Amino acid sequence: MSSRKVVVIDDSKVIRMRVREMLPEGDYEILEAKDGREGLQLIEQSDPTLIMLDFLLPKVSGWEVYQELEKNNLLGAIPLVIMSGRKEEVTEKLQEPFEWFEFIEKPFEKEQLEAAIQEAFRKARKPRPVKAVAHAEVAAPVAVDLTPVYDKLAALEGAIQVLQAQSVTANDFAQLQATVAQLQQQPAATGRGGDENRLAALEAENQQLHHEVDQLKRAVHQIVAALRRLQGGH
Fold first, then answer.
1. Which of 9, 123, 167, 176 keeps 20 to 30 A from 189, CA to CA?
2. How far apart (Å, rounded) are the C-alpha atoms in residues 12 and 33?
3. SS3 for 33?
């Protein structure tokens, strides 16, 4: 029995018989399928040398069979002749020039079939471009340089330490405000320059504390914004 197997997939028994008669006797083992589903099963089970595929088939169309062949690198490399009574049925799905298979229009003669088979073998031997693979399947681990992140964290830690060293407690601030308010309630014209000087000094200190608190607030906002940027980047 010949090891050269040809799977002929066509719903027309006449076409299947004509292909069998036209191929050299003894050179090929002919396997027949009358619909696309049966044809796919034969292809997967028999590992054929050549596939002859009608484009319009019941159950599973020839177009669907072609798509299944293309999904599998091994099956897609098998020489393929697509048959149809109307070429436009094929070109609606597959544009010319047909790079990876040969087309033959039905009805055909023996010489046309032999030429189509030779061309199908020639096209099947052509190297195909590498198919695009989903990014998730080929993505390799990427080395991430975390040095900038560590530098930012170190800077933030230093800023926090400085703020902690310069921080003013809430009790100190409240006590100072109470003292200023109390002095402001005393008569201004006391004739005692010492109280006026003390009041002025306290007011200046109060303003200085307000200024330091504002600086602390701005620094805290900057730290929070920097932490959010770090979290958003990772």
1. 176
2. 10
3. strand
Q: Which residues pair with 33 in a beta bridge?
A: 9
Count of CA atoms in the C-beta half-sphere (13 A) of 119? 17
Please give the model's pTM, rounded to 2 decimal places.
0.54
**What single letter denotes the amino acid at residue 198?**
R
What tokens appear for 219 in the block?
Answer: 């620094």
| Cα 208 from Cα 214, distance rounded (Å) | 10
Q: pLDDT tens-digit profile of 54-110?
A: 999 999 999 999 999 988 888 889 999 999 998 999 999 888 888 889 999 999 999
pLDDT of residue 231: 64
Strands (E) located in 66-222: 80-84, 102-105
Residue 157 has pLDDT above 70, yes or no: no
CB-CB contact of 55 with 83 (8 Å): yes
Ranges of beta strands (E only) in the chain are 5-9, 29-33, 50-54, 80-84, 102-105
Adjacency order of strands within the sheet including 50-54? 29-33, 5-9, 50-54, 80-84, 102-105
Give which of 115, 135, 96 is closest to 22, Cα–Cα.
115
Could you identify the residue written with the tokens 């007011």? 203
Per the listing, tokens 């072609």 go with 66
